[in-house]
Design brief:
The complex is a heterodimer.
Chain A: H1 2-20, H2 23-51, E1 54-57, E2 68-71, H3 73-96, H4 99-102, H5 104-126, H6 130-149, H7 154-185, H8 190-194, H9 202-217, H10 226-232, H11 235-243, H12 245-260, H13 267-289, H14 294-309, H15 312-316, H16 326-358, H17 374-388, H18 394-408, H19 412-436, H20 450-468, H21 471-477
Antiparallel strand pairs in A: 1-2
Chain B: H1 3-24, H2 28-50, H3 58-89
Helix pairs in contact in B: 1-2, 2-3
The chains are: A mainly alpha, B mainly alpha.
């Protein structure tokens, strides 16, 4: 319980300290906060692993009046992902967000925003109250928009503004759904809502909340804001925005459809969600193929990779929830979210180092960089393996679990989408990898210290480890799941 | 028509106006105002929903106040972005969208 409180409070305190203290002390405070929060999250993981879901009722006020927090296996897995990515980003940002490299304004703003983003993510992952979640995703949006704009260039500002328009519209749709749910049931606690007597506005409330969250998750066709925003931010910020931020709103959608209102999960609605996901996989991949800049390729790949997550709905939701393959499909989608988070953060951090070395992220400028930066190029290739879903990566485990479920459920169309998405990922990632490993000497690259190159390698390695050691995270994710997990598929 | 119904209908009308503004307006400041209209409409509707029954429900009031604070923070950031965008590009519209109003 203390660990849960610490993982929520520490980043917020650290953000305040990073604003108030002078430059050197602010960075030191931010790094110390990162280490402490990481420790708190690890402690929480041990607590959950040994004792099950950790619940906390704020101030001793029971729902419906008070707000409950609960860190189950799912929430804690995302807490752990966030802590790992944040630690890597903090190490990378020590150099890349230094005043000399990024300008004094970005160097000042990055640390508080990073920690605010962390506090908001952690709050969203463990909150059990729909309005508390609204506040959480709003704080998340504000920090994320500011991180996009931090560079201050006209392009980045326009991308941030477009992001803001989509995200605020999404927030208001979500809020409208929350208001309807409260009007019908007089509570916003997830567990109390799950035990509610179904009422007429439920369907509309669920639809509004889902639509709003999809805009924030950048699911096709709401994805247009994502590539310019994620490509326009500084590389450490892009790693956070692409690897972590869309996962928060996705997690709320998941909890709404699987935990709060599974009774409203009509087959048609589940199919629509998965069809949008499939469209995102195909369209995002095709657009990624057409980009000339590395960061845009990686950003469009996020659009595609987020699409896979939505294939979970017809496989494990609605009528499928009672089927033996549901646990496999559900866990596969979570593996996809976790391994994508690690791999995408590694890719953006690697892209940032390539930009330091080559001065540009145009594919032509990256040719032959593997000669001078073998570690970073290797990290990029490892992350690419996860995104393509090749064994033995976490992405492979994810796609294996989801494909098995798709065949068992007789919904082979989703398996076809996953296979096609893997092929397209191989195609669009081949271009940057081929450029990096080209047999030419790069022209006058700036040297990058080995310690800095190790950060993306560690994150990409973690994404691979998620595939090699997939059994412990598989079991951990089942802690606190409403339905008993059945293995064997 | 009771007062509560009037509040709820006004709230719904504000949400409708706000959504129209969001879709029709290109000027970014107008869009920020449209967001605030939608938010205010939702809060008004929420307050009316909480006023039903014998004793008014205090929870919506607390949530509305929190929501107003959140909306204020979002508006402040949005206006700041609009100003920065207008300074950097000389226009208060998104690239590719002409200001017809």
């Amino acid at each position: 319980m203390t660990a849960l409180t610490a993982s929520l409070v520490l980043p917020l305190l650290g953000a305040l300290a990073a604003v108030a203290l002078p430059r050197r002390a602010a960075v030191a405070a931010a790094l110390a906060t990162t280490a402490l929060t990481l420790a708190a999250v690890l402690w929480l993981l041990v607590e959950i692993g040994t004792g099950g879901t950790v619940r906390l009722v704020l101030g001793g006020w029971q729902p419906p009046l008070g707000i409950a927090l609960a860190a189950d296996g799912l929430g804690a897995a995302f807490l752990a992902l966030t802590a790992a990515v944040m630690a890597g980003v903090a190490l990378a940002a020590r150099h890349e967000m230094a005043p000399a490299a990024a300008g004094p304004r970005a160097a000042f703003g990055f640390w508080p925003l990073m920690l605010l983003l962390w506090g908001a993510l952690n709050a969203v992952f463990v909150s059990r109250d729909l309005f508390n979640l609204y506040v959480g995703i709003e704080l998340l949006t504000l920090a994320a928009v500011a991180l996009v704009a931090i560079g201050g260039k006209a392009e980045a500002l326009a991308a941030a503004m477009r992001y803001m328009v989509f995200a605020l519209a999404g927030s208001l749709l979500y809020l409208a759904g929350v208001v309807l749910a409260y009007g019908a049931h007089g509570t916003l606690d997830m567990d109390l809502l799950a035990a509610r007597t179904p009422a007429r506005p439920d369907g509309l409330a669920l639809a509004l909340m889902t639509a709003g969250l999809l805009a924030k998750t950048a699911l096709f066709p709401f994805h247009v804001w994502l590539p310019p925003a994620h490509a326009g931010a500084p590389a450490p910020a892009s790693a956070l925005l692409s690897g972590l931020v869309p996962k928060a709103s996705f997690l709320i959608v998941l909890r709404l459809w699987f935990e709060v209102m599974p009774d409203r999960a009509a087959t048609g609605a589940l199919m629509v969600l998965a069809a949008l996901g499939a469209a995102a996989v195909i369209w995002g991949s095709i657009r990624a193929l057409a980009q000339a800049r590395l960061k845009l390729i990686v950003a469009y790949s996020t659009v595609a990779q987020l699409g896979y997550l939505f294939l979970v709905f017809p496989l494990a939701g609605g009528d499928g929830a009672a089927q033996p393959w549901a646990a496999g499909a559900w866990t596969g989608a979570m593996f996809q979210a976790l391994s994508h988070g690690l791999a995408k953060a590694a890719m953006f951090l690697a892209a940032g180092l390539f930009m330091v070395a080559a001065g540009s992220d145009r594919l032509g400028a990256l040719r032959g960089l593997a000669r001078v930066m073998p570690m970073t190029a290797f990290a990029f290739a490892l992350a690419a393996i996860t995104l393509m879903g090749l064994p033995p990566s976490g992405g492979f485990t994810a796609k294996y679990l989801m494909m098995t479920a798709a065949f068992a459920a007789g919904q082979w169309i989703w398996a076809l989408v996953m296979a096609l998405g893997g092929l397209l990922a191989a195609a669009y990632l081949y271009r940057p990898v081929a450029a990096l490993f080209a047999r030419v000497a790069p022209t006058d690259p700036r040297p990058v210290a080995r310690a800095r190159q190790a950060v993306p390698l560690a994150l990409a390695g973690a994404a691979i480890l998620l595939g090699i050691l997939s059994a412990p995270p598989f079991d951990f994710l089942q802690i606190g799941r409403p339905e008993a997990a059945e293995e064997g598929l | 028509m009771s007062a509560l119904t009037a509040y709820a209908l006004t709230g719904a009308a504000l949400v409708g106006l706000g959504f129209f503004g969001l879709l029709a307006a290109r000027h970014l400041l107008r869009r920020v105002v449209a967001f605030n209209l939608i938010g205010s409409g939702l809060f008004l509707y929420f307050g009316a929903a909480g006023g039903r029954g014998a004793a008014p429900d205090p929870v919506p009031q607390a949530l509305i106040i929190t929501g107003i604070v959140v909306a204020l923070a979002a508006s402040a950031l949005a206006v700041g972005l609009v100003v920065a965008q207008a300074r950097a590009s000389g226009r208060a519209t998104l690239p590719g969208e002409e200001d017809a109003s």
